[in-house]
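Quick one: structure for this chain?
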Amino acid sequence: MRLLPLLFVMSMPAFAQNPVDTIRPDAPALATPGPHAIGVQTLRVTDQARPDVIASLDRDRVQRSDRMLTVEIWYPAAPGTEPGGTYQTVLRDGDTPVTLSGQAQRDAAPDAGAYPLVLLSHGYPGNRFLMAHLGENLASKGYVVAAADHPDSTYSDQGAFVSTLVNRPLDQAFLVDALAALDGPFGALIDAENVAVVGYSMGGYGALIFGGGGLSQTAITRQTPDAFVPPHNLLAQHAAGGDDLAALVDPRVKALVAIGPWGRNHTFWDADSLAPLSKPLLLVAGSEDDVSDYPAMRRIWQEASGAPRHLLTFDGANHNAAAPIPAPQESYAISAKLGWAPFEHYADAVWDTARMNNILQHFVTAHLDVHLKGQADKAAYLDVVPNAADGVWSMDDAGTAQADHSYWPGFANRTAKGLRLEYLPPE
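Got it. Here's what it folds into:
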């Protein structure tokens, strides 16, 4: 394994552009940033001689190559760190440059202490900035948050889908090991014994496998379509019940968040293969998701019977529910390369993105604080009437809850609309 720092100079624009740190006035309580200043660094880590899925297509044996991941890391910074910084990235078309702004200070000195590690894993395609709002938010609350560009899966290098099918859980596992191996003051900042994986779409697919939800025999033995069949049976290493999967599952991973996870709609799992997954799971979905298919995601929630699990549903939302940053202004224009406006890659037709981001920040904070930090009091934010519309607001003039008050904790009156949070215990 090689670990190389990636340094580059950032400059503040005259006016903030494309903020990722918006907290709306109606945001639920746990969306509020925490007490820590935020730093951000960029690293490159290399997994040597990984089987190269794309290079192995139409070859008589598996090819290997070094797989380098560029990683953005948000972390609690030393007291007195000035807030504010920018990120240079590109739009969904892989070409158009975009500047994002937020609260993180580039290369700030780290705080003292050790903080749980959270991985953010983007979709296909995506990049390490797609969930930057969550990276900053969690870092302010005492987490080290790492988001990688997954090769063959980014806006700029999108390759054959079979690479993502094989590599996504392997990338996640490798990142935990690579970051746990860091030394010096920054390495001391990471409590790698307490880890969570937050994955969106194909990132959620990877998180479920890495967490112990091995693939079904249908997924492993299928012959068509070709887009689902990696060469040389490379997908078999993720099969449920196999030794390779058992070695992949990491006891340091204490919680999972799968947002719009893809795969059950194409029988990559079934009830038997999902049952061994036992890590606490927060599954997030839009009720109108036609990419990962909402009924299929409900089946994941129902069939992961070994795990304590919540399903947070945004009624009326499609596949972009909660995870992506607000659409950059540059995305509103039709892309000559794509033939459509990249806006639709980030936004939802019904829900405001910043609103969804805040709700996600609230529930992910509760989930991780309970399972990574042992803060049992945060479980109250997850113990709610399943349909928010059924909650009753009953407060006296002094703001004291009455006996019949059942509104969602942390939400102001009339703000828990269009949401459902359902729970199933492990069987």
